[in-house]
Write a structure and sequence with these properties.
Shape: rod-shaped
Distance between the termini: 99 Å
Number of strands: 0
């Protein structure tokens, strides 16, 4: 009767590969400590080392994407500040206009009309 195939999580594999790369213990010691065949550990180490350059390439692409997002955010922020300035000017103009007509700009009590 055969035993079912063991499945290991990516986190577990990464931890084992980190131990291998530290070289504090031999491959055989790490294999017996975790109950994984040494050949399997060699495969995981080779896969990690092969995939490593791609991770650094993705970092550069990520930084470019992040810079583009920050630039877009800054443009949007400038646009919104301009809109706030425009609305503030309009509000001040309306307040002056209302005061020149003689209408109070203070909040009125309920039941009062707001005219002086």
């Amino acid at each position: 009767m055969t035993t079912p195939r063991k499945k290991y999580s990516p986190t577990f594999k990464a931890q084992i590969v980190q131990e291998l790369l530290k070289e504090e213990q031999t491959l055989t010691q790490i294999a017996s400590k975790h109950g994984v065949h040494p050949t399997q550990l060699r495969r995981w180490r080779e896969a990690a080392l092969t995939a490593m350059p791609a991770n650094f390439a993705d970092e550069a692409q990520f930084q470019k994407h992040l810079a583009a997002i920050n630039e877009q955010h800054d443009k949007e922020k400038e646009k919104l500040y301009a809109e706030i300035g425009k609305l503030t000017i309009q509000l001040n103009w309306l307040k002056k206009k209302v005061e020149s007509v003689g209408i109070s700009t203070e909040p009125s009590e309920p039941g009062r009309t707001g005219r002086k």
